[in-house]
Amino acid sequence: MRVVVADDHPVFRAGLLAVLSDLPDLEVVAEAADGAAAIDAVARHRPDVVLMDLKMDGMDGLAATSRITAHHPGTAVLVLTMHANDETVFAALRAGARGYLLKEAAGEDVRRAILAVARGEAIFGPRIAHRVIAFFAASAPGLQVRPFPQLTDREQDILHLLAAGLDNTAIGQRLFLSPKTVRNRVSDILTKLSARSRAEAVALARDAGLGTSEQTPIEDDHC
Predict the structure, then answer these.
(1) What pTM, to 2 d.p., does this model score?
(2) Any idea what DSSP says for residue 143?
(3) Are the CB atoms for 82 and 103 separated by under 8 Å?
(4) What is the mean pLDDT of the chain?
(5) Same domain, yes or no: 106 and 39
(6) Does some domain include residue 215?
(7) Start-to-end Cα distance in the chain
(8) In this structure, are residues 50 and 6 in contact, taking their beta carbons and an 8 Å threshold?
């Protein structure tokens, strides 16, 4: 099983490489310190699995996961991170990750997860599985769940206004945010939605029913 390891912490990456080198049936073919290097490594080596950290300098793991799963569908992405919040978990899944483990996982757990995602299975660590199950339980018939749960409340507000046809300046005036802040938030939204452009994000939002006058957020002073 050919594996690429992507993590921006050299000490952790070295430790992980040492653990993986002792596991049977696995071969680490490359390592990467950021998302862009991970994409290059996948293009060069065509691994079965990428072990992907999410918070990295430069291109982060979410953006890299989206690119890899779009252009190299034969490579599975298994997230290995410290972050267990719902927003990050569901953003990774929407980006195309097949599994999500925390860095507290034992070496044998990592090995089993690598083999599982390479076979096309989805696998989650215990803490993450609980969050995923809770989310889908809340999505049972009769209960209303907001679209795009991976977005923060403020990102939801901005997406509503994007879908309503407002530009960055108008959104900033409406929500009392600077144009630069709006621009950065829009970029985050595109990444989390795996949207390649602003127009694609707007189309996704409108398909989900956002952008109507009833759902457009009112002015407030919350940033």
Answers:
(1) 0.62
(2) -
(3) yes
(4) 85
(5) yes
(6) no
(7) 46
(8) yes
